[in-house]
Amino acid sequence: MKLKNYLILLAIGIIWGSQFIFQEIALTSFSPIWIGAARAVIGAITLILICKSMGLKGNNNQWFLFSSIGLLDATIPFVIMPWAQQNLSSSIAALLMGTLPFYVLLLAPFFITNAKITIGNLISVMIGFSGLLILFYPELSSRTDTINILSSLGIIVAAICFAIALLLLNQVRNEHPIIVARNILSMAAIQLIVIAFVSTPIKIQSISHAGMLALLYLGVICAGIVYYLYMVSIKNAGAVFTSMTNYIVPTAGVIIGATMSNDIILLNTWLALAVILSALFMNQLLSINEQQS
């Protein structure tokens, strides 16, 4: 077990957990589709500049693969999720997105040679999902309205797209993680800009300074930097372990949101975090034991 794997995954969870506050600010100036497009563009530019400064150049031209991953990992989810979340609470959406590690686990044998559904991965994924249930139990137990089936299916489709994109990344060979992140984000940026221009006209007069700064943070940190960390995690710890960021992100979002607004962080939030962290630890521990046996 490498401490580095846990630190990278926690960093990803914290960064993506912080995006909710900045996205709320950005929504006062931009539509959801333009936020997604601008995030991808700013993130791609950030990674391009980093690659230039480090003197990194790509070793292959798998642009069709990069474009496909960008489509599944960013373009389709960025379009589907804002639409679906109009009729779903954040807790339901987070729980449905929390099924992502299950899809990674189930689909891995179809995309990765010799991949198996191991007991260790299955147990850790189930424990991690139970952490999400603990986190959102107070809200879920107080709900009396029905859940929109069509919107729920939309979130599930987005989760499956994320899962397939994660697994396709294993087909990228002999490439630096930051190059992979740059190429995929660049392809997604092109796709999203086209969709944004076609679907939603931008209103220049409604853009505020706060909205612009929030969008800059979302692009540089929540797209560019975190996407690089994401690629490093996949390379070092595997797709299943990395997909468990979906358990950390909502927990980190709740803690960061409560801290920013000076609210009391409830006991179930800390309990959920402890359960999720134990799931991550168990994932790596059982994986090592299974490899040695």
TrEMBL record:
The keyword Iron-sulfur does not apply. The keyword Oxidoreductase does not apply. It holds the Pfam family EamA. It is a multi-pass membrane protein. The chain crosses the membrane at residues 7-27, 33-51, 63-84, 90-112, 119-137, 149-168, 180-198, 210-230, 237-258, 264-286. Keywords: Membrane, Transmembrane, Transmembrane helix. GO terms for cellular component: membrane. InterPro entries: AA-Vitamin_Transporters (IPR050638), EamA_dom (IPR000620), EmrE-like (IPR037185). It is found in: Membrane. Its main location: membrane. Residues 6-136, 153-282 form the EamA domain. This is EamA domain-containing protein. It comes from marine sediment metagenome. The lineage of its organism: unclassified sequences, metagenomes, ecological metagenomes.
